[in-house]
Amino acid sequence: MPTVEKSFAPFFNDLGYTVYMLKYCLPAGKSEVPLADGSNAVELAREHGAEIGIKTVGVMGMSVGGHLAAWVVSVVKAKAVRTSPSWFIRILR
Q1: What residues are paired with 62 via a beta bridge?
Q2: Does pTM surpass 0.90?
């Protein structure tokens, strides 16, 4: 099974994009924790992105990571622009 690290990250790196991988938590019964991990990652990239030339911040994922990416976009976008991604890709298999 392909992973984002092995298949999509090199593809986007070759196109000139900076790629970060989020290893999010999956605590039993606390669904808000992965959402917090995702929104915190976007906020961190937005706050420090200019230091390395990042202009937009997006999220993507496949399988459960795709679900988390969609969740970050739909829930966080309604709350605050600084933690909201500029773009989103969900990979369905």
Answers
A1: 91
A2: no
Q: pLDDT tens, 40-78?
A: 888 888 888 889 888 888 888 888 888 888 888 887 766
Tokens for 23, please give them.
Answer: 């290893």
Any residues with CB less than 8 A from the CB of 57 and at least 6 apart, and which? 42, 45, 46, 49, 85, 86
What tokens does 63 get? 């399988």
Could you give the C-alpha distances from 65 to 10, 47, 52, 92, in angstroms and in order?
Answer: 18, 23, 25, 11
Nearest to 42 by CA among 91, 88, 93: 88
Helix (H) or strand (E) holding 87: strand 87-91
Q: How many other CB atoms are found less than 10 A from the CB of residue 77?
A: 14
Please provide the DSSP assignment of 25-42 as one string. ---TT-THHHHHHHHHHH
